Amino acid sequence: MKRVxxxxxxxxxxxxxxxxxxAQCLKPVPGASPALSLSVGPAEPRVDFGxxxxxxxxxxxxxxxxxxxxxxxxxxQVQVDVRDENGNLPPETDLGKRENGHVxxxxxxxxxxxxxxxxxxxxxxxxxxLQIYLxxxxxxxxxxxxxxxxxxxxxxxxxxxKSNSIRITVR
Length: 171
Known about the structure:
single chain; alpha+beta; Immunoglobulin-like; four-stranded antiparallel sheet; about 35% strand
């Protein structure tokens, strides 16, 4: 439980430490309804399936939504959780530990949390599609079945929005 809380704190800190533009874009209102939904599935086209996933962030509100779009890889836009058949995390890369909040905050360099990007408008009913190459975050050289889900902070409510789970087989 402590690790999950620390992970959420690190994730929220990564969003907060970004640029001033991110703060202008993200103005959550506690108690507001979430504006986004997340779904995860195979990436299209199916390139290196089992290691490349597609994430769709959809505006489910009745209005346009401003959200922060991070530059430098879609892996920085959401937290990606991968678990083996026993529910264990596979070994993570340095980027994976940092982006997914599985690191002790005392080990972080604040410069690693700084990002760049821009506020983007996601129109009512529209989606942003991300492609995430899992080996940037996790060592998936061990064959087996893995469960994957993603989460992010909703830009309007500040709530954690979670995706569906998918199962992949790495050979």
